[in-house]
Amino acid sequence: MASRTGSRASVQCLATPSTGDRRTFRRALLRWYDRNGRDLPWRRTDDPYHILVSEIMLQQTQVDRVLPKYREWLDKYPSFHALAGADEEDAVKTWYPLGYNIRPRRLHAIAREAVGRFGGELPEDEETLRSFKGIGPYTAGALMSFAFRKRAPILDTNVARVLFRVVIGRGNPKAHQMRKHLWRLSELMMPQKRVFDYNQALMDFGALVCPARNPKCPECPMAGFCRAYGLGARDSGLGTRGSAVSGPAIAAPPAGRPRRGKRESGNTSKTTRR
Questions:
Q1: Residue pair 145/187 in contact by the 8 Å Cβ criterion
Q2: What integer pLDDT is reported at residue 36 of this predicted model?
Q3: What is d(CA 196, CA 147) in angstroms, rounded to the nearest whole number?
Q4: CA neighbours closer than 13 Å in the CB half-sphere of residue 199
Q5: Could you identify which of 56, 153, 156, 157 might form a hypothetical disulfide with 187, taking C-beta atoms 3.0 to 4.6 angstroms apart as the criterion?
Q6: Of 10-19, 95-104, 136-145, 163-172, where does mean pLDDT reach its minimum?
Q7: Rounded (5°) CA angle 67-161-186
Q8: Region of poorest pLDDT, from 140-144, 175-179, 182-186, 238-242
């Protein structure tokens, strides 16, 4: 019996939100983004090289540290051809002090492959993008969405945290099945229009409102239907030792607001970087 109960709980945990709940989530997110979205230079271009540079720089590095280096890098290496023709060690020195020096080496290798195989361009299909060493599922999705303006899901650390907290609320975010489900959710939740803005909004929201530590729950536009917030700190599954979503658990609902219990299956009304 316990095994069956556990199985039902797992299925319920991984249930998907209804069409109406997905719409509510998207509208709330895009309204927030229209008022609060950050004006970043890589959002003002659709150059695949520029976007690739920004995405690789933003892996494990905050925006404020990336901004000056992004401009310096593009001044020195403005294209795949320019980077491919440069000495790899010079590229690593230019990358300083961002750290994680495997990143400039991978970027240099991608540039050489792009020049050698595609004349200094990036292909526009996900399968070929992922054939490049150093371009994984997230980076391929980001390029498809931000450079080629195609309807493609993304799942970085911020996006995973937002989807996990708002839509799921409890469980182990690091579990393989959960990670696969979060990718499915990322695709399922996308709108038909404004996909570029939607994906950028998810990342900004995760960085500014729903960070790993000290999320701003009382002022969050998702608070009315966030499952983790409704469950409260004790039941959220967040911020516990071993959790992929580190830091304190979701703030408990303020006094006077009833703590909501577990919702019915299927309902929700929803890498350290950026």
A1: no
A2: 97
A3: 9
A4: 26
A5: 153
A6: 10-19
A7: 95
A8: 238-242
Residue ranges covered by each domain of the chain:
16-38+152-274, 47-147
CATH class of 16-38+152-274: mainly alpha
Tokens of 123: 């292909």
The residues near 188 (Cβ < 8 Å, ≥ 6 apart) are 16, 17, 22
Examine the pLDDT at 256 and tell me if it is beyond 90: no
Please identify which residue in the block is written with the tokens 């001044």.
75
Quote the pTM value.
Answer: 0.81
Measured distance CA(203)–CA(28) in Å, rounded: 14
Q: Is there a catalytic annotation at residue 72?
A: no
Q: Which residues have a Cβ under 8 Å from the Cβ of 62 and sit 6 or more positions away?
A: 273, 274
Q: What is the mean pLDDT of residues 139-168?
A: 96
**3-class secondary structure per residue, 160-224:** HHHHHHHHHCCCCCCCHHHHHHHHHHHHHHCCCCCHHHHHHHHHHHHHHCCCCCCCCHHHCCCCC
